[in-house]
Amino acid sequence: MKKLFVYLLLIFGVTFYWRIDVNAQDYNTKELIPVDSAATVSTDIFLYEDFVYNSAVDSKGNSVITFNSIKNISSDKEYVSINILLFDKDEKNIGFLTYCSKKDLDTDYSGVRLASLQASPFSINVTKRYFAGNNLAGDVKYIAVYDDNKYCQIGGYTKYAGLTISEISNGKVSSSTSSSSSNDMDFSFLNRFSDNGMFFLIVLIVLVIVFALFIINGMILNALYKRMYAKKTVLAYLPIGCNYVSVKLSFGQMVANIYLIGLLVSGVLSLVGISILLKAVNLLTIISFVIVIVKLITKKYDLFYYDSSIKNTNNLRNNINNTSVTNISNSAGSDNSFFNGQVDNSLVEEVNKDDVVDLSYSDASGGLLNSSIQESSNHDNLSSDSGTAISSGGLDFNSFNSTSNTNSSSNNNTTNKNGEESDLSKFFK
To answer: What is the β-pairing status of strands 142-147 and 81-87?
Structure first.
């Protein structure tokens, strides 16, 4: 009797062991597993032992996946993570469960990490958020482990909706969602740095470099902007605004307005895959900045510049140049005491040449008239040097002294002009 009892016990034990061994079947990743069936799946990081998707749902329509054990088989301490595909009775995907304990804020497993070769029982709640459309946990008939979610990503729950396991294995994604959408973007490179702070350091360095480049670019543009327009602009320090200012300085206001419209249109077209106009606009931006540098070095501010106001200024300059010398000379030959052998000092304005706006972009009448009068004054003073004073009273010693001072000032101006440095070299001093 005693031996019979022992035999029955052994038979029961072997049968029970065989039953467990049969139920806990080994599966590969991306292989369908029926619900309510125990399965074991191994990946590079974890061994998921004896886990079951429970088809029974609670009052909220949620289900649960229970793991007899999740073992970390890697050499590093890891957060518990897994990606599981969910399928209906027709073996069509209806959801995508992406889990990582690092981003779990709702359960007792929040922040759980397993050391190397450490194992622990586990469970994951299957809620509505993991499903596409109106599907619920009770509609799941098959599951499949996609991978171990090594980079701890979450989201993309509708990425494979409507696809079979073979289509998913071949790399296909659902047509109803874009692989470039925010939920489906691959942020794996971010997760590699998130634990040790390297990512935030890299972002900070990039932001500092970009900010510094915008500041330097704005300073260079404003250096030329002040020469041409006698003021500065905050647009030189802003994205897009600095491009507009660069084109304006290089080619004029009209071209800059056309450029701005082209930039906006090219941005819209690039969103629908037409990028040729955007490339052309970017090329024009680079060319304009090179021209800005050239203008700062050579001081040829009207180089490539097209503007109707510039043409009017040039015409006015020619008219005054053609008439000023003749008119002033005729006046000097008469008894007009206004030009009595010299130019009144009030008509000659001494200006710091570094702060003067270029003639082409300032008040044409004022600058050109002073220049013509100065030339006439030099001409008359030379006549005074030769002993022929243009006055009824003969030689004017005051005129002679004024002539000497004027010639001396003219020589100093010539010396400064010959030794003058470019605007760009002053900018970097």
So the answer is: antiparallel
Pairing of strands 93-100, 81-87: antiparallel
Pick the closest to residue 256 from 300, 306, 290 (CA basis): 306
Question: How far is CA 107 from each of CA 81, 99, 167, rounded to the nearest angstrom?
Answer: 14, 12, 33
pLDDT band at 352 (very low <50, low <70, confident <90, very high): very low
- Please enumerate in sequence order all residues whose Cβ is within 8 A of that of 427, keeping only pairs 6 or more positions apart, or say none: 219, 220, 223, 296
Supply φ then ψ for residue 91, to 5 degrees: 60, 35
Q: In this structure, are strands 39-42 and 25-27 parallel, antiparallel, or unpaired?
A: parallel
Return the number of other C-beta atoms located less than 10 Å from residue 222's C-beta. Answer: 22
The candidate with the shortest Cα–Cα distance to 55, out of 151, 175, 146, 140, is 140
Classify 96 in phi/psi space as left (phi over 0), alpha (psi -120 to 50) or beta: beta
Residue 426: C-alpha distances to residues 82, 289, 320, 353 (Å): 62, 18, 33, 13
Structure tokens at 236: 């030189």
Residue 32 token pair: 């369908």
pTM confidence score: 0.43
CB atoms within 10 A of CB 125: 18
- Tokens (6 digits) for 76: 């590093």
What residue type is 171 in one-letter code? G
Query: Which tens digits make up the pLDDT trace of 358-407?
Result: 444 444 444 444 444 444 445 444 444 444 443 334 444 444 444 444 44
CA distance 353 to 292: 20
Burial of 243 (C-beta count, 10 Å sphere; 0-12/13-18/19+): buried
